[in-house]
Amino acid sequence: MLDDSTIAAVLAALAVAVFACALFGAGARVLRQPPVIGQILAGIALGPSLLGRLPGDPTARLFPAHVLPYLGMLGQVAVTVFMFSVGHELTAHRRQAAGRAVAAVAAGALLVPMGLGAATAVLGRAEFGAAGEPQAGSATFVLFMAVAVSITALPVLAAIVRDRALDGTRAGTVALASSGLMDAVAWLTLAAITLGAATADGRRAGVRQVGLRLVLLLVLAAALLGVVRPLLRRWMRSPATAPYHLPVAFALAGGAAAATTALGLHAVFGGLLAGAAMPHPHENPVPSPDPKPDPKPVPSPDPGSFLTASVHAVESLLLPLFFITTGLALDIGSLRLGDFVLLAVVCVVACVGKLGGAYLGARFGGLPRQSSATVAVLLNTRGLTELIALNLGLASGVIHQRLFTVLVLMAVITTLMTSPLLTALGHRADHRRPPGPRPRQLPAQNQKIAQC
């Protein structure tokens, strides 16, 4: 049972983390950067890379060792909820995921960086070994590096698209839809990597065991998407169910997370699947008993706004703990000269692969040069989704502390590039629009849902 001092220390650490991430996030927004950049930097600043180097080790005082397991647990809950929102976002763009341009961009922006990342891991085996990676050159390590340089952060990308008034444009639509396709493939690959790196009684899981777990994962995904989702869609047709959307969403996320954990995967995969299985309320328009159209429709919030806002509220409260625990695992001061050279190489590979692959895919898909360049820059955004993947690699032993630090810095640098590159392309931030999606005006027959 927790004593009062431990509870107080956890609450104090939560207060520090939330305040620091809010402060740094606001600073990032002032600098026209995504708030997630400031939140990542807050975690780094409060960790051993900066604050921990001051006299008296303030980091250890703010985040005592005996509370770190509780902070880590709460941070993982937040990440699972965040991945639920990622899965929910993926299905929001599924209807846009058709057409030559989306398929070409998704293929180019995924396969090219994955190929370059895998080639770098193979050719740079000695350099990665010198960075503290004993598994450098193994199939698991090569696949992980391929995924690490090819991930796009869909939530951060969606926020940038809104901030730059690109929602509704062809470039913004193609970027969002192709990012959804790429993330689905990347996370499936990452699941296979995690299973391959799983251990049992000190021995690596055999090929048959990995194959069986992958089959069970596909069965779980098929059940959630093919059975649970249609049932929920039918249930959510009634406006009377609106108050129960949030409890059902969290119950679904918790159950799916427990199932993927039982399969030897991280809970975030369950959160991702649960988000994809949760229908959007606006998918179920309720027929109006009065067929006469309303001559003056009253603007009304999205029926799913309460669910989305509630999920984001949980994220904003607990995600700072994930940034803090990530920052505590980083120590930039421990990097050597060769590690910084490796950082430069990884950044070049990640940018060339993503920018080049996305641009060529967009051009092949029929987009003009300006739009193709915009899509390429947008898809080079990584952010929090990359951090989650890197934490999975660190927790499963695929990568270790120094390379973890290098890859986190790569994620920060490549995401920092997005805003100035978009400005250079002529897409300036629209400061007249409030943060968040555009308000939707619903047909009169759907307003009953929104009022519940």
Please describe what this structure looks like.
- This protein has about 450 residues and is mostly helical.
- Strands 1-2 form a two-stranded antiparallel sheet.
- Strand 1 and strand 2 form a beta hairpin.
- The chain is globular.
Q: How does the SSE layout of this entry go?
A:
Blueprint: H1 4-30, H2 35-46, H3 58-62, H4 68-92, H5 100-123, H6 125-130, H7 139-148, H8 154-163, H9 170-196, E1 199-200, E2 203-204, H10 207-235, H11 245-262, H12 267-277, H13 305-328, H14 337-364, H15 369-379, H16 384-395, H17 401-424, H18 447-450
Antiparallel strand pairs: 1-2
Helix pairs in contact: 1-2, 1-13, 2-13, 4-12, 4-13, 5-7, 5-9, 5-14, 7-9, 8-9, 9-10, 9-15, 10-12, 11-12, 14-15, 14-17, 16-17
What structural keywords apply?
452 residues; mainly alpha; two-stranded antiparallel ribbon; 18 helices; disordered C terminus
Gyration radius, to the nearest Å? 22 Å
**Stretches where pLDDT falls below 50 for ≥5 residues?**
199-205, 286-291, 294-303, 431-452
Mean pLDDT: 83
How far is the N terminus from the C terminus? 40 Å
- Judged by helices, strands and strand pairing, the structural class is mainly alpha
Strand order within the widest beta sheet: 1-2
Order of helices and strands: HHHHHHHHHEEHHHHHHHHH
Number of helices: 18
Strand proportion: under 5%
Question: What is the global morphology?
Answer: globular
